[in-house]
Amino acid sequence: MENRRSFIKKAALAAGAIGSGMACSPETQKTSAHNATSEPIPTVIATWDNRKATQAGIEQLQNGGSALDAVEAGARVPEGDPNDMSVGYGGHPDRKGIVTLDACIMDHLGGAGSVTFLQGIKHPISVARKVMEETKHVMLSGQGALEFALAQGFQQENLLTEKAKTAWENWMAKQEAQLVNENNHDTIGILALDKEGHLCGACTTSGAAYKLHGRVGDSPILGAGMYVDGEIGGACATGLGELVMTTLGSFLIVELMRNGASPQQACEEAIGRIVKRYKNWVEEDKLQVGYLGLNLNGEYGYYSIRKGYSVAVAQNGENVKLESNFALG
Ligand code: SD4
């Protein structure tokens, strides 16, 4: 049986390549490599200080892995880390004390897989990849996603660590509002460009801490938490998903790049849209969103609503943390 990926690959080949027509202008954060020779620069970039993830990703590329392998390997790092309390194992639970996970992955040909409201599986990004590669669907949710994961050989386990349980119990005692604001974040969005010039992306999270049971955020929504167009570039998001979903930030960034914006300009415009439309809410709850964009030249940009956002960049033999500029104080 022809699987969905091989179908998409054939369709993409039949459609032929389209030039990106990229125009670059001065950027406020001078960090992107410029590639005058147009040789792809192997690059792995991620939201927040996820240098262990970008390291795992760049090692995949150095060992001959694809951009898809790189983003999956990178995303699996915080997923498996109990000290990262916004992703996978050890993530903050929802209001009922249950860890529910969202993730998506997308390749340079438009193949995509996503899981939402998944429980008990440590590496949702790998389940999302299986949805992409082994089914004709894009998104599986909840119990169905779990049954699919188990059928694919994933193990079910308890993802609520003692640390996360204690924090949840303390929160339950006080019932303080807890959205994704300047103090509460870590979701990983990760983009990779390999030496073939293939650009892929992934995003994985346990979502907003103490969310209502059943809430799904932006992270598994293609075009919101992450989006890739293999002829243009990719983008991903972190922060309060409700703001990202309602402005389709990652899709917007890629479309702006298609129309000539640099990744930096595109990220700034996408943040600007949120601030303009939701200014009162953003200010009242001190909400945070951060974006990251990468084009096929290995140029990247990143920007956030407020201070404190950073990104990790592995490129040209370096793997560094970079602090983001921001729109509000
Ligand atoms: C969500 N975007 O579920 C995620 C949360 C997040 O760092 O990014 N946390 O809304």
Task: Describe, in plain words, how this protein is organized in 3D.
By secondary structure, the chain is α+β, with helices and mostly antiparallel strands. The protein has a single domain, classed as (Glycosyl)asparaginase (Glutamine Phosphoribosylpyrophosphate, subunit 1, domain 1). It has nine helices and twelve strands. The strands form two sheets. The protein has an eight-stranded mixed beta sheet with strand order 4-3-2-6-5-1-11-12. The chain has a four-stranded antiparallel beta sheet with strand order 7-8-9-10. It starts with a helix and ends in a 6-residue tail after the last strand. N-hydroxy-L-asparagine binds next to strand 8.
Write the layout of secondary structure elements.
Blueprint: H1 4-15, E1 43-47, H2 51-62, H3 67-79, E2 101-106, E3 112-118, H4 124-134, E4 139-141, H5 142-151, H6 162-174, E5 188-193, E6 199-205, E7 226-229, E8 233-239, H7 241-245, H8 249-258, H9 263-284, E9 289-295, E10 300-304, E11 310-315, E12 318-323
Helix pairs in contact: 2-3, 3-4, 8-9
N-hydroxy-L-asparagine (SD4) binds near residues 86, 218 and 219.
